[in-house]
Amino acid sequence: MEPHRVLVLNSGSSSVKYQLLDMRDRSRLASGLVERIGEETSRLAHTPLTGGAEPRERTGRIADHDEALKAAAEELAADGLGLDSPELAAIGHRVVHGGLRFSAPTVITDEVLKEIERLVPVAPLHNPANITGIRTAQALRPDLPQVAVFDTAFHTTMPEAAARYAIDVETADAHRIRRYGFHGTSHAYVSRKTAELLGKAPEEVNVIVLHLGNGASASAVAGGRCVETSMGLTPLEGLVMGTRSGDIDPAVTFHLKRVAGMSADEIDVLLNKRSGLVGLCGDNDMRVIRRRIDEGDERAALAFDIYIHRLKKYIGAYTAVLGRVDAVAFTAGVGENAAPVREAAIAGLEELGMAVDASLNSVRSPQPRLISPEYARVAVAVVPTDEELEIAEQTFALVSPGDADSPVHSDN
Question: By CB neighbour count within 10 A (0-12 exposed, 13-18 middle, 19+ buried), where does 22 fall?
Answer without folding.
Answer: middle
